[in-house]
């Protein structure tokens, strides 16, 4: 799905701002049929949970409703008119006046509706959007709905972050020609000093298609005719880590000399390869430094904010991070566009977090099978497959994206895991054969017990030796960590990336004895991990958990959220940030060696 943009043949209106707002408890059975009565207004984009002081809104389980009036520009007569949501967490419905025009499950990917026949150019309509935060064992991510002793509905999530909900990304009204470009797929290779661009343009109608390749100076460096083909770029400038060099593929539908539709797609020329235990970008070994992150900030929750986007990337640049993982869901597309331009490497992850019934919020145990008819089942797998399709469909052309992560910490050691994951891994590789595929492994899935690791291209591990295990005993933690990493290396011989490691740390807590939760303990734990990483040749990168402190659901082991951030939630550095900066600004792309 192409992101709406202004071109010579397309226009768009941004619908962000203050919308009328109500929960389902405040309105009748069909709130889209009349103006919302509550008197509340909510910001778009933003999660609604932290906007209001009423705990019944913050903790609401079920549908909420957003509403505003919209006028279609009168100049759009003869065009097709669409309403698009960049996301609705986790289930969305869109009404134009009283007509349901779109419905979508999956809280982090876009959907849209053609409303041309409902609203003529120049006319005004009432736009109502319903959003439900309900999760079940058959959704991605999974969850569990319960009712407490007072009859209040509760939502349990199997993930250690707050279930922020609402319209967290932008809403658009946009126009396209009747004969239009609907999708573009670009892949790249390198032959000597030339880049080779393979393209596919999907378009409506029977008119001719042509493409032009334009460099950053605006000069045309290649062209072709036809809906598919290849275009060479002589003396190509590669997209590479730290240097986000981009080209535009300008796709056009033409009728003689007339341009019927035009869409410019930014892309970068680069290659990705896993060779033995190396991860190669443009044929050179790449060593990941960076973080697992979250879309999380004060007041906005998961609401996208360009100011936070710029500041977070500035902090990553300061600390020497060259990459991050979109834990644990697809981030706003603006984040990937910015990563493309900044030369930041991204591991792009689906929202499949919590496919593990023996842990909840990270550490509590349950004696339940994960892969079972009443747990993670065939309907869950179908939703998971759709999440993978939508992720790749949206993000396939971003050069910053170098690997797909199809799940975080699933129970891949349990019976049923291979039957569940093998078709999903195969689907991912069929949809995009150009990028490696991984699933992020948790501590119960060891080299001896994991049932799907042989299907993956890179071993991505989340490990907390010294925190959840061997707490305050870093000497033993170091021995056990190294033993496990060598076990993965010996069995599979593939690249190993630590996608989570860290310790909860209360900013400002200092002690010469370095107890857990102190800034000194976080530093010593990270330094221990780094010693081990430097001793394992198959190791290709380190992503600290987490970039910044973030909000979680209420729990007795969480004090106002998860405190494993290297930065506080308001982006102030802890001591560990300076230690990482010293290491990462010296590492570059070359892994340090101490033995």
From TrEMBL:
Organism: Lysobacter korlensis
Enzyme Commission number(s) from the entry: 3.2.1.31
Name recorded for this polypeptide: Beta-glucuronidase
Domain Glycoside hydrolase family 2 immunoglobulin-like beta-sandwich: 180-270
Single annotated GO MF: beta-glucuronidase activity
Top enzyme category: hydrolase
Alphabetized UniProt keyword annotations: Glycosidase, Hydrolase
Hydrolase among keywords: yes
Similarity comment text for this entry: Belongs to the glycosyl hydrolase 2 family.
Start and end residues of each Glycosyl hydrolases family 2 sugar binding domain: 14-177
PROSITE patterns in UniProt: GLYCOSYL_HYDROL_F2_1 (PS00719)
């Amino acid at each position: 799905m192409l992101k709406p943009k202004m071109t010579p043949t397309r226009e768009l209106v941004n619908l962000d701002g203050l919308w009328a707002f109500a929960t389902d408890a405040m309105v009748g059975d069909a709130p889209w049929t009349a103006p919302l009565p509550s008197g509340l207004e909510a910001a778009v984009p933003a999660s609604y949970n932290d906007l209001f002081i009423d705990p019944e809104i913050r903790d609401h389980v079920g549908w909420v409703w957003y509403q505003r009036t919209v006028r279609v520009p009168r100049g759009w007569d003869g065009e097709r008119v669409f309403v698009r949501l960049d996301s609705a967490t986790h289930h969305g419905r869109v009404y134009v006046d009283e007509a349901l025009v779109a419905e979508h499950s999956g809280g982090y990917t876009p959907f849209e509706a053609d409303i041309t026949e409902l609203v003529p150019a120049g006319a005004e309509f009432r736009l109502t959007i319903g959003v439900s935060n309900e999760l079940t064992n058959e959704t991605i991510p999974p969850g569990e709905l319960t009712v407490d002793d007072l009859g209040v509905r509760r939502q349990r999530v199997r993930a250690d972050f707050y279930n922020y909900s609402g319209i967290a990304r932008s809403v658009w009204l946009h126009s396209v020609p009747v004969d239009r470009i609907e999708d573009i797929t670009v892949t790249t290779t390198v032959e000597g000093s030339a880049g080779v661009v393979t393209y596919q343009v999907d378009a409506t109608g029977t008119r001719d298609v042509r493409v032009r390749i334009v460099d950053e100076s605006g000069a045309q460096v290649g062209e072709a005719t036809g809906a598919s083909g290849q275009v060479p770029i002589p003396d190509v400038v590669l997209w590479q880590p730290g240097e986000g060099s981009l080209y535009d593929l300008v796709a056009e539908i033409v009728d003689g000399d007339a341009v019927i539709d035009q869409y410019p797609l930014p892309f970068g020329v680069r290659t990705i390869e896993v060779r033995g235990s190396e991860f190669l970008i443009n044929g050179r070994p790449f060593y990941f430094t960076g973080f697992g992150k979250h879309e999380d900030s004060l007041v906005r929750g998961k609401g996208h904010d360009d100011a936070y986007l710029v500041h977070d990337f500035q902090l990553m640049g300061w600390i020497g991070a060259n990459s991050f993982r979109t834990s644990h869901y697809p981030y706003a597309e603006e984040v990937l566009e910015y990563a493309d331009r900044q030369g930041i490497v991204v591991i792009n992850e689906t929202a499949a977090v919590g496919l593990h019934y023996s842990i909840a919020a990270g550490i509590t145990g349950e004696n339940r099978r994960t892969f079972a008819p009443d747990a993670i089942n065939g309907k869950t797998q179908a939703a998971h497959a759709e999440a993978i399709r939508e992720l790749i469909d949206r993000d396939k052309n971003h050069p910053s994206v170098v690997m797909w992560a199809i799940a975080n910490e699933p129970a891949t050691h349990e019976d049923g895991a291979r039957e569940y994951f093998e078709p999903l891994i195969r689907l991912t590789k069929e949809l995009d054969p150009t990028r490696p595929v991984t699933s992020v492994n948790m501590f119960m899935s060891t080299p001896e017990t994991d049932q799907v690791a042989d299907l993956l291209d890179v071993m991505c591990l989340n490990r907390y030796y010294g925190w959840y295990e061997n707490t305050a005993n870093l000497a033993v933690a170091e021995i056990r960590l190294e033993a496990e990493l060598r076990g993965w290396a010996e069995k599979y011989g593939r690249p190993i990336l630590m996608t989570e490691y860290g310790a909860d740390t209360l900013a400002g807590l200092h002690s010469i004895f370095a107890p857990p939760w102190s800034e000194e303990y976080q530093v010593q734990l990270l330094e221990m991990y780094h010693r081990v990483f430097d001793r394992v040749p198959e190791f290709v990168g380190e992503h600290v958990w987490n970039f910044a402190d973030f909000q979680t659901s209420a729990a007795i082991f969480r004090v106002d959220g998860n405190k494993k951030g290297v930065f506080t939630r308001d982006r102030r550095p802890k001591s560990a940030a300076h230690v990482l900066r010293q290491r990462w600004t010296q590492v570059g792309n070359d892994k340090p060696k101490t033995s």
